[in-house]
Design brief:
Layout: E1 6-10, H1 11-15, E2 26-29, H2 36-41, E3 44-45, H3 53-68, H4 73-83, H5 86-93, H6 97-111, E4 116-120, H7 130-141
Parallel strand pairs: 1-4, 2-3, 2-4
Pfam families: DUF488-N3a (PF22751)
Protein name: DUF488 domain-containing protein
Organism: Natrinema ejinorense
């Protein structure tokens, strides 16, 4: 059986029809603390694949500091990402037992031919996002 396709997008793109996903793709949220309106845009959510709460909080705190210094929202977000080592820390988190179990479940689904679309909040044309790292991990570590 052919491996399922893997896509990713952000919730506003789904809500405003700005993205074309495979018709059969299951929309899998990958956020730690989804809002009620987020749930309405996805088929399911896997909080274990969202960034750890401590990492999100340090990122938000640093981002707010950068905005107070006059950086625009996107600039503050991307600068804070680098300053807190977000990418590296998230990759390390993906090696933990909690994340590994959730990753294995997605891998099994892809291997069985199911198409998945990873969904979170950030528009990656403007801001860096953990789902890009997550997608790369699934593409690199899949069968």
């Amino acid at each position: 059986m052919a491996r399922g396709t893997l896509a990713d997008t952000y919730v506003a793109a789904i809500q405003h029809d700005l993205v074309e996903l495979p018709a059969d793709a299951t929309r899998v949220g990958v956020v730690r603390q989804p809002t009620s309106w987020f749930h309405a845009a996805v088929d399911e959510n896997r909080p274990a694949l969202g960034p750890p709460t401590e990492l999100l909080e340090s990122m938000r705190d640093r981002e707010e500091d950068m905005k107070m210094q006059g950086l625009c929202e996107e600039g503050a977000h991307n600068a804070a990402w680098d300053q807190v080592g977000f990418g590296e820390t998230y990759r390390e988190y993906l090696e933990t037992d909690d994340a590994q179990a959730a990753l294995a479940a997605l891998e099994d689904r892809l291997a069985s031919g199911e198409s998945l679309a990873l969904v979170c909040y950030e528009n990656t044309e403007k801001k860096r996002c953990h789902r890009t790292i997550l997608r790369e991990w699934l593409e690199e570590n899949g069968p």
